[in-house]
Amino acid sequence: MRYCLLIICFLLSFVFNLNAQIDTVQVLKDSTKFANDTAKVEGVKEKSVVVKDPDHSPKKAGMLSAILPGLGQAYNQKYWKIPVVYALLGGVGYLAYTNTDYYNFWHGALIIKNNPYHTDLELYNYAKDHSAGKTDIPASYFSTKISETEFQTENDYYRRNRDLSYFFTGVLYLCNILDATVDGHLYNYNVDDNLSFHIQPTMFNLGMANSSAMGLSFNMKF
User: Fold this and answer.
1) Prediction pTM value
2) Can you tell me the distance from the alpha carbon of 12 to that of 117, in angstroms, rounded to the nearest whole number?
3) pLDDT per residue over 35-65, tens digit each?
4) Is 7 domain-assigned?
5) Domain limits at 130?
6) Which helix (H) or strand (E) holds 222?
7) How far apart are CA 100 and CA 82, in angstroms?
8) Cβ proximity of 220 and 196 under 8 Å
9) Is residue 88 part of a domain?
10) Residue 33 lies in a domain
């Protein structure tokens, strides 16, 4: 569940960023005059569109983020996204590292336990040397009170967590590339106060003893 929440937070920031940037699409007949001319579309109010960088490349933004996460966001001048990218990747990456460490410990113990020629002393020494920080179970319990089924359960549990951690690390890495690419496409789009969709905080009058409440208002223009 905690992995899903991380993914949802990242995707929500991506979606809200799109809603904040996408404006009424302007049809331009002459791209060489894109920086200074007014885009004229029949039935649509004229507005000037300013190009920040006509050579800005969405492909380059995606490639930079593929080489180094956050580099494409810097290229798109979305510097605030860089710590978000590294916080998410770092958090899931840490979980992947921890679960891998735990899995290796329990897998090694399971191998010894499954060996019909193993001794209690061998299992005890393994737990004593490798269990630090991985379990609260005393090393002496490994040779006397933990069954093979319990070893197998712990082994499978951390293997599943390890695999999920690596999977979500990969998903976040791909989202980082996708975010940079989309931002690259929207880099030169004009965004002003005439957005078609607005979300803003609003005070509502409840009509009861002059009481009021804080809420959100949604305004759409067609």
Assistant:
1) 0.61
2) 54
3) 444 444 444 444 455 566 777 888 999 999 9
4) yes
5) 2-195
6) none
7) 26
8) yes
9) yes
10) yes
Residue 39 β-bridge partners = 47
Phi first, then psi, for residue 215 (nearest 5°) are -155, -170
Q: Hunting for tokens 């809200």 — which residue is that? A: 16
Structural domains counted in the chain: 1
Q: Other CB atoms closer than 10 Å to residue 125's CB: what's the count?
A: 15
Average pLDDT estimate for 2-21: 47
Contacts of 101 (CB under 8 A, 6+ apart): 134
Tokens of 110: 């399971």
Name residues whose C-beta falls within 8 Å of residue 215's C-beta, 6 or more positions apart in sequence. Answer: 201, 202, 203, 204
pLDDT digits (tens, 9 = 90+) for 96-129: 999 999 999 999 999 998 888 888 888 888 888 8
Tokens for 93, please give them: 């990456």
Helical axes 2-21 vs 148-186, angle rounded to 10°: 10
Residue 131 scores a pLDDT above 80: yes
- For residue 79, the model assigns a pLDDT of 92
Distances (CA, A) of 102 to 40, 52, 97: 63, 50, 9
Is residue 156 assigned to a domain? Answer: yes
